[in-house]
Amino acid sequence: MIDPSSISALMRWYLDAGVDETIGDVPLDRFRQAERPEEAPARAGIPPARPEPAQPEPARRAAPPAAPAERVPSAPPASPTLPGQVDDLSSRLARIETLDGLREALLAFEGCPLKSTATNTVFADGNPAARVMIVGEAPGAEEDRQGLPFVGASGQLLDRMLATIGLDRGSVYITNVLFWRPPGNRTPTPAEVAACLPFVERHIELVDPAILVLLGTASVKTLLGRTEGIIKLRGRWLEYTTPRMSRPIPTLPSFHPAYLLRSPGQKRASWMDLLALRDRLASLNEAPGNGDLAESSTVI
Ligand code: URA
User: Fold this and answer.
1) Which domain holds residue 113?
2) Ligand 1 centre from 140 Cα, in Å?
3) Is 42 within a domain?
């Protein structure tokens, strides 16, 4: 009989090590799988390793019997980061004219290794016709479970923040610079960010919002290429553009709500950013027929 306290001690140890999610029922030894992919157990939602192209029979027979087995990568090669490959992907995505088409292309995309450890692809939430598009960093555990961005604790704070200026998921469109959760919420690698970037750029082009709000350092660095930290850039109106856009989009960097949960003293600065967003929207609202904004006294 296993002592329940040793199980909970083990669980605590896993959590401390950053393992906060079970992604399969059967343990998977990725070192052995790398050598013998055919032995990997099938796991729901995780694509099997890409099969090796079939060898012509004669070539296989000609192989010396004692030759060591070639190591087969356990996941598809995942670096469309060479400039030519990114350009190629970008120009293929440029031919996609709808968000549904872009989502389908993303679901078929195997160029980011994060996809193989994630439960869901997290594409977007909210109203694609909204004038405000919000771009965060990466899905967390709850977003990965539900397949929607900003539905965990930081998403709930974001909802409360938006409510203070009369916005909700019907009047904003929300996505991230990464479409898959990095395991244990680790910082994404530059290659993972680069793999997703052509999709994010096309995403923004297709939504074509009046205002872009970038939450946190990762989205600001990725989309604006700025080296300054978020403390310096937040609250400043900047511009985002791509070569295919007819006009730059006014862009407001602000603190990530996860940071605000850890540093509530920064909520005041975020409140200033929300007011700046509200004022900018109000100036757009001066055109008749726009009703995104309502008075609100919600406390965040
Ligand atoms: N943090 C993000 O940046 N995005 C999410 O979707 C959730 C948490």
Assistant:
1) 83-297
2) 6
3) no
